[in-house]
Amino acid sequence: MEFSNSLIQWYLQNKRDLPWRNTTNPYHIWLSEIMLQQTRVAQGLPYFLSFTEAFPTVFDLANADEEQVLKLWQGLGYYSRARNLHATAKHIAYEINGEFPSNYKGLLKLKGVGEYTAAAIASFSFEEPVAVLDGNVFRVLSRYFNVESDISFPKTKTEFQLLAQELLDKKNPALFNQAIMEFGALQCVPKNPNCEVCVLNSSCAGLQHKKVNELPVKTKKTKVTPRYLNYLIIKDSDSNFIVQKREGKGIWENLYEFPVLETESQLSVNEIIEQVSKMEFFNLQPIEVISLHNDVKLHKLSHQHLNIRFFEVHFASKLPDSKPITEIEKLPFPIVIHNFIVANYCNSL
Predict the structure, then answer these.
(1) Is residue 209 domain-shared with residue 239, that is, in the same domain?
(2) What is the pLDDT of residues 283-331, one digit of tens each?
(3) pTM for this structure?
(4) N- to C-terminal Cα distance for the chain?
(5) What is the distance between the alpha carbons of residues 138 and 132, in angstroms, rounded to a whole number?
(6) Secondary structure (3-state) at 279
(7) pLDDT over 90 for what percent of the chain?
(8) Where does the HhH-GPD domain lie (predicted)?
(9) pLDDT-based confidence at 349, cuts 50/70/90?
(10) Do residues 258 and 241 touch, judged by C-beta distance below 8 A?
(11) Is 220 a domain residue?
(12) Do 199 and 86 lie in a common domain?
């Protein structure tokens, strides 16, 4: 009880004023929770405001075109979240009359809603006494109780879930859940937390055992795969461009990109130009290949490191299906390609 009371008192004095905390509307809370998965609040907040302005209700989001949704999401990453968000909005609007499920079990059935998100919506919107468990909560609990179980393993999640549920203030589940997550985000931070000013320092077992910076324990490392993407900026005689939608499973599904030549390793500029010149598409007519950037742009995803270069290919004639920059700028692109377009082909995008 001391842990919960101290945590809540700290929260009431230190919490950030965030728009999704001033409502019990499950639509807004759902939006915020999906956006904040793998995303810092400072990055997610502008997107939340843009979405709620463009789509004030779940019906507005359901009726939107997917490209509009992806364009607004552009730069937030993990684009499957946006596609799931759109699909779930359609399900809620068209199949259950715009009403969100009002309990944890019902929320879990929604596409893109996992255990943490379901617990957050259930407690914040409907005051259901179910504890949330995210990275912040893992960190706070492991340090305070000196739990050395490896959070890489599923059984550890069950251990922490039971502990969080036991500590939960059943009369104020929303307040407690917000408090422990905020405490992890602002006070009990991953690296070098300021334990001297922590309200829990007198009873924190991790601090007493001088193990704060070693907890939580996580031994399993994410395997990162390198990929080499050489984008071809195909430009015709009218200064129009060829772009294509990225289809199939994998990164950036349903986003747009320039035609791409993927290689197994980093090739020299001359080797790339030689390969481009041999591609069937380019054998149709004379071309000029220009290397726009000899440097490689490294774009880091959770499981992949993308080594990206851009090559401009000039055609002497007009190409079918080419688009002017004014049309291209309306399409959703991966942020690394979006930034390249902004820097090289238009004043604003």
Answers:
(1) no
(2) 656 667 776 666 788 899 888 999 999 988 888 888 888 999 999 999 9
(3) 0.90
(4) 53
(5) 10
(6) coil
(7) 75
(8) 35-186
(9) very low
(10) yes
(11) no
(12) yes
Within 13 Å of residue 177, how many CA atoms lie on the same side as its CB?
A: 28
User: Is position 33 annotated as part of the catalytic site?
Assistant: yes
**Residue where the block lists tokens 């430009």:** 235
287 in the same domain as 203: no
Question: Which helix (H) or strand (E) is 232 found in, with range?
Answer: strand 225-235
**Domain boundary residue among 179, 214, 249?**
214
Please give the helix or strand (H or E) that residue 291 lies within, else none. strand 287-291
Q: Which residue has the tokens 């101290």?
A: 6
> Looking at the 3D structure of the chain, how many domains does it have?
2
In whole angstroms, what is the distance from residue 177 CA to residue 175 CA? 6
Does residue 160 lie within any of the structural domains?
A: yes
Instruction: Give CA–CA dist 44/85, Å, rounded.
Output: 15
Q: What does the chain come to in residues? A: 349
**Rounded-to-integer distance, Cα 284 and Cα 280, Å:** 7
**Tokens 């302005």 found at:** 53
Task: Give the Cα separation of 315 and 229 in Å (integer).
Answer: 22
Query: What CATH number should be reported for the domain holding residue 96?
Result: 1.10.340.30
Contact between 135 and 184 under an 8 Å Cβ cutoff? The reply is: yes
Set 2, 33, 115, 280: catalytic member: 33
Residue listed under structure tokens 């463009």: 54
